[in-house]
């Protein structure tokens, strides 16, 4: 029995969160070669403990043992010949270029609201956890370079302290590449969003469950491209940050 057969065999034994892990792995088996347990949990919209329980349900001590056997399975069952490197680069660059062109579809009204909010010279609070911290940090540092005050956090503990200092005229921006960070719910529920006008979610997920916590949502293109890649496309939100900073610079 293969490891895939084992997953199918235990479908009825999985909890809801473990089932999310199983579904993601079955849909994207090639990702396991490069994914850490944290990255898998993030992509499957669940927790690392759920991934661990999933592995244990299958009979493994932990994710390390499961991943080792899964990689062995993948290598033994590859039917496609390795792609020519240049052909792969050409295809990937074309997909990425098409995604960049799709930036023209970003909601211009919401984008202008974000620019105006960041120019109000009140404090700007910028959050991004895990992989989403890369564009969030870039925006915070870029604003400081432009003489605009900002505070950045890449964890919920520090972010929780920042929330206590929010004023009604502050701007709050939350980056979430997947838009499905279940660990963010408790943090976002503590934010007095009812008294804040300028709250923005930046995500690649148009169906993000986090949208309900924000008055404004800007959806970036690239979700389809990201799903095909073993690498999280932090570069797309970072491109957006560069566009945003240049718009702000022009209006200063």
TrEMBL record:
One of its GO terms (molecular function) is DNA binding. GO terms for biological process: carbohydrate derivative metabolic process. This is HTH rpiR-type domain-containing protein. It comes from Aerococcus urinaeequi. Transmembrane segments: none annotated. Gene3D superfamilies: Glucose-6-phosphate isomerase like protein, domain 1, Winged helix-like DNA-binding domain superfamily/Winged helix DNA-binding domain. Pfam families: HTH_6 (PF01418). Residues 1-77 form the HTH rpiR-type domain.
